[in-house]
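Troubleshooting: if your tokenizer reports a length mismatch, compare your output against this known-good record of 368 residues.
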Amino acid sequence: DLQICQHRAPTCCTKKMEESYQAAVRRERAQSIQALNFELKYMIVGHITAFQEAFEALLRFAENRTSSLFETAYRPMAKEAAEPVKELFTDLSLYILGAETTVESAVLRFFDSLFPLVYSRLINPGITDLSEDYTECLRLTRQDINPFGRYSKNMVTELSKSLWASRMLSQALSMGIEVINTTEHAALTKECSKALVKMQYCPHCQGLTLIRPCAGYCLNVMRGCLASVSELDAQWREYISTLEYLANEMAASHDLEIALTGIRNSVNEAILHAQLNGPQLSATVDKVCGQPKQQEGNLLSDNIAPVKEATETQTLVMAHASLNNKRRDFINYMKRSRTFYASIAERLCDGDLVMRDSSTCWNGEDVV
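Known-good structure output:
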């Protein structure tokens, strides 16, 4: 009653043993594919972590630089500006990690929050009435009167260029993990399970427990079993090329580090522009939002601990070098894995599975 290991000679197998063998080959094949995938997956996961750590270091540096601008040049509004600055960098971080947001919405939201502070602390420092309604009116007015000139739009353009490649690379790395996980759990067909049993365990039914499959026979069986996985070859090669392109984009003109550290200067230029046009802005705001209450003299800000900018420069240099080195090492490794899916059958037949240095091997029917 054997279905797979039928043979002319007497056999020591039963139908139940054949079923056990089928379960065994499915388990073994999953384990061997996992072992092949492990190194590749380890490299991608490691790079995702390294990329995020280096990126977070750059973000923290750029955020501290931007905060220090308010603490040194615009102290009257420094305490209240801390939250909008923090929100801006949180939004940019989420954008790179693939959140459903845009650089434009993050930057414009920041300038919406900044305008009420610039208006009430720098342009008209005597204002005391900053009710929710008045603040909201100032926020909405910002979109119409454009107090920060071209600087807000320029900041969107610069950041969008450099952060796009980072976002795409981050998403591409996550996609790579998904592809590998999917191939790991690809189910074997019944025909494949039977072919693997015939190749690996049918010799046992003849008492030939030490004989192993012929190399060519193993390759034929494995290629048949893994035809759907090896079809990924063309897309995998294209995927590696895309990773290379994105890494080059990040390292090229749209440099992530330059764009992030340039936020401070963009914000400074934007505030200076608003101050220079203070009288015209006040006239327009008075028409739209009404005249707020005034108080004699400037408002004093709370004491603020200044950011130590000098020590942060070293952090930037280290993060920059770290990101570039890791990016380069990773791409070189991934280029070597171009043929990963094309050669998966060969790699599974390598090692202990087949007979290498012997004149006899199993061909699926007999010892040859």
